[in-house]
Design a protein that fits this description.
With about 120 residues, the chain is of the alpha+beta class. It contains 3 helices and 9 strands.
């Protein structure tokens, strides 16, 4: 999963296959049709979350809720962590663009946060 972080407003936005912008409108991005590669504005900070670690953390949380106790087996507690990282500048999966280059046809499907 890819997110973008805006250094100006502090908003974090999950990428979709349509353009999404932060609250202040200074960063934007979207997944390409393949759902793997993305384009983001040059000022956006790309963040990745390992999908498998997220899935395991969600499953661990569900297991804790089912047990109904705040302290459960250590293995479940350890799985509540997930792996996230700031993507490198030269990522083969992410291309950048200048906000001024955002095309009019892209703006027709823009969504701004906070529904991220």
């Amino acid at each position: 999963m890819k997110l973008i972080y805006c250094r100006d407003c502090g908003d974090v936005v999950r990428l979709q296959r349509f353009v999404r912008m932060c609250l202040c409108g200074k960063t934007a991005g979207r997944y390409l049709e393949d759902g793997i590669h993305a384009v983001i504005s040059e000022d956006a900070v790309p963040i990745g979350i390992d999908n498998n670690s997220l899935r395991m953390a969600v499953q661990a949380r569900i297991a804790m809720l089912m047990v109904g106790k705040p302290i459960v087996h250590e293995a479940i507690k350890n799985n509540l962590n997930l792996t996230a990282f700031v993507c490198q500048f030269a990522s083969p999966h992410i291309k950048t663009f200048k906000m001024a280059e955002l095309q009019v046809e892209d703006i027709s499907d823009v969504e701004t946060s906070p529904s991220s």
